[in-house]
Records
---
Amino acid sequence: GATTAIYRTNWVGGQPRKIVERALDAAWSPDGEQIVFNAGALENSRSTLIGIADAQDGTSRELVRIDNSVVTGPRWSPDGETIAAIAQPIAGNAVDSKLLLVDVATGAARRLEPIEPAAHMSPPTWLGRGEALVYALSTEPVGDAAGGLSRVVRYDLEADRHRTLFWTENLFPTLGGGGGQTQFEVVGPGRLVYHEFAVRQTLELYEIAGSGSPPDRRSLTAGNSDDRQPAYSPDGSAILFTSNRGGNLDIWLYEVESGAIRQLTDDDANDWDPGWTPDGQGIVWSSNRSGNLEIWTAARDGSGARQVSSDGFDAENPTVTPDGWVVYWSSNPDKLGVWKVRLDGSESVHLVDGRYLTPDVSPDGRYATILSLGAYETVIRVIEVATGEIVPFEITVSHGSGAGVLWGRTRWLPEGDAIAFVGVDDEGRSGVFRQQFAPGRDTASTRRPLAGFSPDFVTESFTIDPSGRYLTLSGVRQVGSLLLVEGLPGIEPPVRVGR
């Protein structure tokens, strides 16, 4: 259905049996009689609950509710007394992830600092009799796209001491949708098994004018880089996009007529989320040059970069109205939701409060789409930019999990009478749909596919040129691997205490 649930089934097969409704991750207790699960983080939720359920009949109780966080990967300690998990910001890519330890008897929870400030962390795995945990972390808000390595560490709880076990790549394939994360299992003394995903993204061009099927796509970029988040210039002559082809994430430009590609930003920090100013003579984007992701602007050639927002935590996905308002969203718990600010950084206004992401301004600047995320469902809503009022109109995008894609990512059609968005067809393939925009009406019957829906890649982000004739999308190709690492000191299989 539209939400996830926890099921159990026999090793030898048979009918799966649902035991917990509306829940996400789950893990067995050491005696096999109970499971721990996390729930919440549903549409516009600001908290996650950790619960315990009887593994036979599903009778459950809430253990603890964690506010302003998404809790993932709960794991039961070998002695059955503690739950370990990861607490992450409720949205976005802030460097604020923590280890979470919850006492099973009392529900008391405490957050532990990782070995260094972390944007992404893997679910923790218990070692031995529960004296230590192993997990991976990345300090980069953009995860693997930054081009660096992630650290795998062993944490001794009693001594409060970390030890780096090894560094490796492809553990956090972040594509702007929260991304994915690896998991570890201990398979013997000194031996861990884990998974990785190598991600490659290219820009693909479709012609969408006319009533017939679009012709075969044409690749605009190629290679081993990740090219994503395309954005057509107001005159259609160029496409901004994000790429790590220079080593880390920067803003690049593709000239439509000549096919020439050139780099616009070059900084040790990561630059992504590109967009244009209304006159096409300037660009906006999100960068962590100041220590966290903020909104920046520069001239069309990338010169004169300066910071626009002052969020202090995590500001992303800027889009600009014709009269010069920059609309963006923040995952700052104290400033959560969608904001607008002038290009010079003045007149900051909180438009709508809540877990809303990725605004996109309509061509006339009157409206902006915003996304409200659920576990298996995204709701596209529309606000008035002048007032922040939510318009009586929505599009529900049901989808599967995985791929790290931000389902429901939107772009307006040039006339402003329709919205295009990333979704999934009946065969489970991702692509771009369009649907009419009419406040106060259900327009689901007008939904039709535009581009993508290929068995060769996953559609992740896209843009439509000002004429409405061409659509350029970013296609994701993932290669997954299981890896075994041996000879690691201090890695012992979990031992059930008292057995």
---
Amino acid sequence: MTSVADGSLGQMLARLVEEIDVPPSKYDEAKGHYTAVGEWLGAGDSPLAFFGVAVYPQGSFALGTAVKPAEDCDYDVDAVCLLRHAPGEWTQESLKEAVGQRLRAHKTYKLMLRPPEGGRRCWTLQYADGSRFHLDVLPAKPDRFDWLVELGVPERYAEPAIQITSRECYSDPTWPKSNPAGYLRWFVDRMRPRFDEARKRVAMAKSAEVHQVPEYEVQTPLQRVVQILKRQRDVMFGDDPNKPISIIITTLAARAYQNEADLVVAYRNIVRGMRSQIQRVGSHYVILNPVNPLENFADRWITHPERQERFFRWLDAVEATERELSDARGIEKQAELLMESFGPSGARAAGAVAPALLKSAQPLGEAVELSSGLSQVLAAAHRAKPPWPIDRECTATVSARASRPGFRTVNFSDRSPSPTLAKSMSLGFTLSTNTPKPFDVYWQVVNTGDEASKVGGLRGGFELGTLEHRESTEYRGRHSIQAFVVKSGRCVAQSRPVYVLIR
């Protein structure tokens, strides 16, 4: 039987998934992008056509575990460009450059390449601002897979193995190996009963054949829990490059999943079971790739111990959140916990299930104010678009403080918005970035409200500045400030918008 507490939590988790899920239109758009690229690369007049081009998605869009990106961030779509009959004498550099040359032969794609010379492994196409997409195209060729079968990998998982290009390995005759299609088959098999049931339900609702239902329209409890876990990670670590990687989260969750049909039960059992899926060999941790026993997803924890620290800090927080949600007495406490762990998305989910809480629970009300208020600021007509190509190679964060003589200083940041501030306070903002010098810093202040509008004080442009920036709380209303790091004519890092509410 389901308890009352589980019933309300189930409603909140379901609404949370709705808040963070990628809408079907974006899946359609993503499919349109990588299909068009594949058609261009494999067209009859393409130099690559003879080699048998196949372009297919990999990563979260293929797995059905993608989540909506933060404001001002792109949908990151990954695709493989497989040349089925690539010449045996081609090097990694030859294969990658052949794909790049064909992309540059397209009058539009050549202007979309970021950076123009290509990345470490992929060619990245940056679509127009309104689309909020970038597509990473990974050149690849088939790999022999008998060695995987010999290691005990089922043939249907081993068969689509590929070899990929990496600038770091150009001088190495042994190509890097990958198998995203095999991983997808393994992942779907981990939830096969629930996946097939859900697909049949969607087909019946649409009066369609089962095979006509796109996989992205099917959602199982496993996929939903992975989305929830990834959102808690993003709320905790933002753009931190050392945050837990999605492949580890997805693998541990899939291994812990026992095909539970109920979302709450699946969430509870997955969270409680993930830690036991991590192996330890001596002083090192091991999380094996299920379709390649020679690959340890945690191998970089050895050279980057900060990644191991972030992962276990996240896992501790995930376990604590699940435990507190399960033990919570009353919908009010569950709502507060959801907001604390999942930010504005959690607040909106809790508020949708228990709207009366918006009046009785101040922290929840503040989170809803943040989610709706910041959205209004970012949608302001006078907010200018960045004039530089956006190539986020580095990270940037902004810390802030509000002060007034005789009053306590208030600290906040681009990850923890300000409380409601009074007028006539001094504001100080400090940018931290790992961008190598030299670089330029631009600040974008966006303000709204009748006071600023009446005196012509609306702002939304970019101001050249330094790592330190000062403002004051002059106008009542909702405002934001964001830092952009520009190097060689490209924006290589940008902070999240810092939300400032003045009343």
---
Amino acid sequence: MDADELLADLDPDQRAAVETESKLVAVIAGAGSGKTRVLTRRIAHRLAVGSADAQHTLALTFTREAAGELRRRLHRLGQREAVTSGTFHSVMLGVLRQRWADTERAPRSVTSDRRRLLAEVIAPDGGRPRRSEVDTADAEIGWASSHGIRATDYAERARRTGRRPSTGVDRVATWFADYEQLKRRRGVVDFDDVLSMTLAEARRDPTFAESLRWRFRHVLVDEAQDLNPIQHALIDLLRDGRDDLFLVGDPSQSIYGFNGADPALLVDVEDRFPGIEVIRLPVNHRCTPQIVNAGTHVLAAGTQPAELRSARPDGPVVEQVTADDEHDEAERNSAGCVPAAR
């Protein structure tokens, strides 16, 4: 990979984000501003100039699709030595399985179907629980897990933070405790347990924690606005003593608030990470000025003001339409935008 070629087709803001010599960087990337392009070019550029090592680079995403796209783009750029990339859960599950093997502990199965186990807990007699009960238990346990709250502490923390589950706090607390007991009997953990267990192992064993920091020396995080508290704790664990961290995100695009994500952590990133360099990508390369202006107007009416402008020519005036179905909606939505740049 040629370092100069990696910069050739970037706009000035994208280029600044990719080639900055700072190791601690936050990129506030508006919609359509080339977030994934900047993330992959940042990885490729650092590898090309020798400021990072592929085998010690970790790119964390929120979906398997995003991780796959990241790997494909790096391959197209000519990067042949693989970096570690994946969701928080998949990467930490690999770490945890290796930890179990190294400490000669029996591996635990991971269940991806928490709702099925919760249904058993809520209706232990084999009946069918109400869907609203399963929804409530699932949401509350997800919230608690994302904050590192154990079943024994759920009721007190839920009340203190003003949680108001439709079934009441006490019923959720009972279901939570029974759910934990059922997992122990079956010898399984869920995906949220993977993060909390990895964190607990590292906090108990400084040597293990240091081995993670040695392995993952260069950390990049996509969609950083969706980080929840336990994911933030893992980031802090990995960067302890070595501020080599690249965050990319947009507070206006947070979608995981239900699971404890707090976009304010990215808004206040300079307080959260003292000394961080903040670079903004304010140019939308995907949509017409009319669409961008409409979007920023809507955002300005909420809590996340947006500074975004379009690089595309004028298009038709934005109209409000009613679609017949999801396919019709998708076709109409694509009228003023182009696919994300690769």
---
Amino acid sequence: MRPAQEPESWPVTYITTGGAGAGLYDVVSNQFLAEAKSLNHFIQVKISGDSLSLSARKMDDSLFDILKIVKHNGKLDKQYLAKVEPQEQLNLVNMFARALTFSISALPVDSRPLKKNIHLESDFNKE
């Protein structure tokens, strides 16, 4: 992510992790998530020279996601830069997600099922 009006600024990669033993939450995918899983896991980070590698691993040590960021002569790799999205788009998605979450959680919940009888009549066979 980086601001649309600052195309030469350094992008920021957001990594959210936290499935190391606490309760898990449902994950909703969107265009800004490279990978989204609701499972217990851990991450392994390796930094060497101009390269950063992050591995996301299940508790049995099997790999389920990897991120690699490489610089060449102090500049970010072109493949990485091709994936950069405008920060404003993510902000908009998050704003609507928060609003919907708040709205849904504020709705009154009734434990009784609602039954409605609907009768449809057709005028096709009438003259």
